[in-house]
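task queued by scheduler; priority normal; single chain, no ligands, no partner chains; default sampling; output format set to C-alpha cells
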Amino acid sequence: MNRRRATILLHWFSFMSLMLLLAGGPIPALGWAFATSALMMTGIAIARGLMSGPGPKLEGWLRHAHPWLSRGMYALLAFSAGLTIAYLLGWGTAGIRLSDLYFVLMSVASLHGIFHLWRHTALGDGAFRRMTPKALHGLL
C-alpha cells in the first residue's frame, strides 16, 4: 500500500471512529481503533512529511498558514490518540475529559472539512480529490 492510499484510509477511519467515540464514549475496542489509526496517520506525516499543500490557487495569509494549520491538526489528533491510550491503560487523562477533547477534535475537523469544501468549490483546486478514494472522484 502506498503512502497516499494509507493516508486516505487512515484519515477516513480516524474520522469515522471519532464520530463513534463521540456517540458512545471510549469503548475499549473503538478507542484502540481510533488511537491506532490516528497515530499511524501521524507517524506517516512525521516520517514522510505532509501530503497536503496549499495548492497554487490559495493565496495570501491562508497560503502561509496552511502548513501550520495542518501541523496543528496532526498535533491535536496525536494528543487525542495519546490521551485515549492513557485512559484505556488506566493512567488517567490529566483532568481532561475525553468527551470534551473529542468534541474539540470533531469541531476542528469540521472546520477542516469546510475549508477544503470551500477550496474545492470556490477555488476549483480539487482539494477533495486529494483525500477521497478514486472510486468517489466521479461524484466530485
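post-processing summary
- Residues 36 and 123 are 34 Å apart (CA to CA).
- Helices lie at 3-24, 28-48, 60-88, 98-123, 127-131.
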